[in-house]
User: Which sequence fits this backbone?
């Protein structure tokens, strides 16, 4: 192999290596761009999720408040029913006493 042939082969190999390195550099650039796009999308999703979580927490707070109100209302209804039941028993006794006096 002559020096010229060796030099040509060497130049060809150097060119191939340089082209491979340029391809790798381009791939890295695309990966970085893709990584940035993914990060942007993830940030957007996190922001949306955070907003939805805030809304959900607010709705849960409202629901808990409504449940507390319902419990309070149920307690009032129970008291009213018990009072009506007692009044009905008293009225029934009074009616019996009145009938007994008339009879």
Assistant:
């Amino acid at each position: 192999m002559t020096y010229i042939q060796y030099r040509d082969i060497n130049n060809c190999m150097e060119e191939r290596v340089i082209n491979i390195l340029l391809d790798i550099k381009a791939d890295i650039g695309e990966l970085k761009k893709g990584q940035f796009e993914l990060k942007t999308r993830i940030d957007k999703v996190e922001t949306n999720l955070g907003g939805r979580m805030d809304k959900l927490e607010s709705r849960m707070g409202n629901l808990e408040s409504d449940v507390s109100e319902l419990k309070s209302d149920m307690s009032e209804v129970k008291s009213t029913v018990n009072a009506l039941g007692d009044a009905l028993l008293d009225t029934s006794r009074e009616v019996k006493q009145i009938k007994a006096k008339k009879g």
Remarks:
- The first helix runs from residue 3 to 102.
- The chain has a mean pLDDT of 93.
- The two ends are 144 Å apart (CA to CA).
- Residues 21 and 27 are 10 Å apart (CA to CA).
